[in-house]
Amino acid sequence: MSTRAISNMWTLMRRELWESPGAFKWAPIIILGLILFFIVFGLILGSRFDNEMAFTLDAIRQFADVPEDQKRLFVTGALFAVSGLFLQLLILVLLFYLSSCLYDERKDRSILFWKSLPISDSMTVGSKVLTAWLLAPAIYLLAAIVTQLLVLLIASGYGLMAGINPITEFWLPASLPRLWLVMALGLLVQGLWLMPIYAWLVFCSSWAPRVPILVAVAVPAAISLLQHAWSMLSSFSLPQFNLGRIVLERLGSGLIPSNIGWQVESRNGQVDMGDVTFSEDVFMSFSNSLDFLLRPGMWIGLLIALALLAGAVWFRRRATDT
Amino acid sequence: MSLTIHARDLKRYYGNNRAVDGIDLEIPSGRIVGLIGPNGAGKTTALKAILGLTGYSGELEVLGRKPDKDRDRLMEDVCFIADVAVLPRWARVWQVIEMTERLHPRFSRERCMHYLKNTKVKPKTKVKALSKGMVVQLHLALVMAIDAKLLVLDEPTLGLDILFRKRFYSNLLNEYFDEERTILITTHQVEEVEHILTDLLFIKDGKLVVNATMDAVHERYREVMVKPDHVEEARAMNPLHERVLFGRHIFLFDGGDIDRLNEIGELHRPSVADLFVALMGEEYEDNAGAEEAA
Question: For residue B192, is it within any domain?
Answer without folding.
Answer: yes
